[in-house]
Structure formats: C-alpha cells, structure tokens
Write a structure and sequence with these properties.
- With 75 residues, this protein is mostly helical.
- The protein has one helix and no strands.
- It has one helix at residues 2-67.
- The chain starts with a helix and ends in an 8-residue tail after the last helix.
- 0% of the residues are buried.
- Residues 1-23 are annotated as: Disordered.
Length: 75
C-alpha cells in the first residue's frame, strides 16, 4: 500500500505543480501584455507631441520668413 500511496502523493504534487505553473504563466502573460499596452500608449502620445511640435515649428518658420524683409543685394 505504501507504493500506491507514494504514487498518489507524487501524482497530486505533479498536478499541484502544473496548476501553479499555469497560474503563474497566466499572471506573467497579463503583466507582459500590460507592459506592451503601456509602451504602445506612450508611443502614440509621444508621436502626437512630436507631430504637433513639428507643425508649430514649421508654422513659426513660415511666419518668420514672411515677416523678414527681402534682402537687398549690394553692388
């Protein structure tokens, strides 16, 4: 009977280990997906900021070019 009890105990331990590993794997995947989502959100936000800055810079350069008097050539 002790062999049968030992086999059952080992089987239960393997099942518990498999369940624990599945749970830890699911938690790790959730953490990974959350990190990927955070990176994507930051990327979108930073891209929007960069595009807004580039547009503002281009507008300022156009305004400065329009406001500057034309240069005269010296002979």
């Amino acid at each position: 009977m002790s062999d049968e009890t030992d086999a059952r105990t080992r089987s239960e331990e393997r099942a518990e280990r498999a369940e624990r590993m599945a749970k830890e794997g699911a938690e790790a995947m959730a953490e990974h997906l959350a990190a990927v989502k955070a990176v994507d959100e930051r990327t979108v936000r930073l891209r929007a900021l960069r595009l807004a800055k580039e547009a503002a810079d281009a507008e300022a350069a156009a305004a400065a070019a329009a406001a500057a008097p034309p240069k005269r050539k010296r002979s």
